[in-house]
Amino acid sequence: MSTIIASRKILIVPLDWGLGHATRDIPLIREMLNAGCQVFIAAEGKHAALLQQEFPQLTILPLPGYRIQYAQKGQFFGLKIIQQIPKIFRAINYEQRWLKKIVAEYQINAVISDNRFGLYHKNIPTVFITHQLLIKTPFGGWIERTLQKINYRFINKYSACWIPDFPGSNNLSGELAHPGQLPAHTTYIGCLSRFEPKPGVEKKYDLLVLISGPEPQRSNLEKLILDQVKSLSITALIVSGKPGTPQHEQVAPGVTQINHLNASELNEAMLASDMVLSRSGYTTLMDLAKLNKKAILIPTPGQSEQVYLGEYLMEKGYFYSLPQERFHLKTALDEASRFPFRSFHHEQDMNQYKQVVQQFVQSL
């Protein structure tokens, strides 16, 4: 391996919107470490805790997230986000000032920004990762078109745009990442999942429940599941999505709740489960597709992207989806058992992101 590649310093910064952006960056970080790069991570809170657990040897730089607050009721989700747009722009301006300082202090050679808008730099290569070229809102129409223009204006400040999906009709993101016009320097990098399929894993659970996403909806779903699962005669593992706060308890016969699993443990749990129940967050969808798992999706109420993905992928037959307001666990399990699931098979390599990363590192 050349000393030039080995000395490259790459900064990776995930968006603080749920844990999905942090977890989908794990395979990218691994690949850059495999290429001999020195990787720095910028994050705070539970995102920093998750990535520190996966990569205890790496330096994590403190960088405030956008710290978006979410509505208690789903119907106010979009309005609550729009009200906080000024705060997002202030955070973007701070990112710009912060990045100039960090690049000079640590001699950073490249930046990978997972959906954070202010981490472009005129002197070094910067990559913007997104699966949302079209940003869904409850309002549609001119608001979505305006947001797309703003989105593209920022994306085009970066050296490249990486989309974690496949081109063509056999994809996971639908019109979110397949609009009529793509930004310049766009590359589809395939499925971006930290998990790997393994043959012969013994079944341990009828159901694996992955609770994730922003508060208060994360806790709302957790309470809904815990109230209903205790009356069912099933084996289940509930992962509450709270890294950094260890907890492991038996909540009912055959039902275990744990706050967090690392990537290897969660990989094993998914493979050992007949059915997965989760939000329709995009990172989770990529994980499910990579492992070819059947799943029940419950979109976060009011989050238009997740609602769209749930409906889109159910229509394609990949997953079963239903809204939280009419969710009942036993009914959902019964209906999913009759759903004609299709596997997400793709003719392209599910690890094609590795080649994209290798080429990027070699270009530095």
Automatic annotation (TrEMBL):
Domain of life: Bacteria
Keywords from the UniProt entry: Transferase
One Pfam family recorded for the sequence: Glyco_tran_28_C
Domain Glycosyl transferase family 28 C-terminal: 248-335
Protein name: UDP:flavonoid glycosyltransferase YjiC, YdhE family
GO molecular function, one term: hexosyltransferase activity
InterPro entries for the chain: Glyco_trans_28_C
Provenance organism: Chitinophaga ginsengisegetis
